[in-house]
């Protein structure tokens, strides 16, 4: 305990030097904590936003092969699917049924490629709350069977306004050319990171353009009450569906391969007939995003090591200067009986205290910054909308990450101070007392 008190006293004797070293460490911890906090909530926020935009956590798509060998996407009858969901007591909050098509929107000679999603908006009240419209309402869309809501960027590109009628060119589900007419009833904020958000229309008219019959659709989305139940629920439902209908295998291919890509490759490579179902989850879709998070965390660790590699050079040089300044003091302590190990401990204690102070200050500053940023409403029209939660930045950092960073900093700081401390411990009392440095 006495050694600790002496080490702490030595730090207070050189306040400016101590503050500078601690500030350097605090800066490094601040940067790393901000990065880790952002990546910690990154996957959670993106998953939540994707689940809302895609209308589900678990997705089932029907794939039918025609007599000519053409692959057709549709669900003709979902009684078996609904029975399986009920029998497995799937904890669903919403079940959505949608049809999508790639279309060309045409207005007064201007064109825009657009994915158009058709849905039953009476059943997707939650989704309507997530989409920010700058003009029009979903009620306007529901009142106009041929209504469509497109993004501001697309509307600006083809110079279309509310109430205008625009042509749409698309293909039916069997691949035949078809044309129709939409009435623009609303304009939405572009929530895509890259522009060109999906357009939304009524499923009845989209099905008509796709030549699907009433009640048919392309994909079912199951929105669960608890997103943490995705994997367990999906596994149970998938295994049950395999006993009822023909299913494409999940998670085929290498572990590094995206499971959705693997399933699509399987569809092309295997010989099959009739109707089969694709089964995927939000976690399958988010696998690529998780890889981005892993890269960011790895980059953060590299930044941490590089920053503290530079800082540790400063720590080593500082303790060498301390050694020169305290040579006679060390000689006196050694002359009155202080052991070499205690001298070494004093230097290492000082280094550890500096690390603790720096980490504490860095964490406090990062926490304050996070709290401030979390209070700012950046809006749902920002290009970074998908990375936020309802327009607010969020940060999440597991406790183990904090202790890991603290451990790395402490070890590096002690390592940087070890050589000067070891040199101090080896000083001979007589030589130290005669020193003129």
From TrEMBL:
Presence of keyword Translocase: no
Annotated Gene Ontology cellular component terms: plasma membrane
Transmembrane segments: 20-43, 295-319, 347-378, 398-419
Cell compartments where the protein resides: Cell membrane
Keywords: Cell membrane, Membrane, Transmembrane, Transmembrane helix
Ranges of residues in domain ABC3 transporter permease C-terminal: 302-429
Broad class of where this protein is predominantly found: membrane
This protein's record includes keyword Transmembrane helix: yes
Domain MacB-like periplasmic core: 18-236
GO molecular function, one term: transmembrane transporter activity
Membrane topology annotation: Multi-pass membrane protein
InterPro entries reported for this sequence: ABC3_permease_C, MacB_PCD, Macrolide_Exporter_MacB
Family: Belongs to the ABC-4 integral membrane protein family.
Protein name from the UniProt record: FtsX-like permease family protein
Source organism per UniProt: Candidatus Thalassospirochaeta sargassi
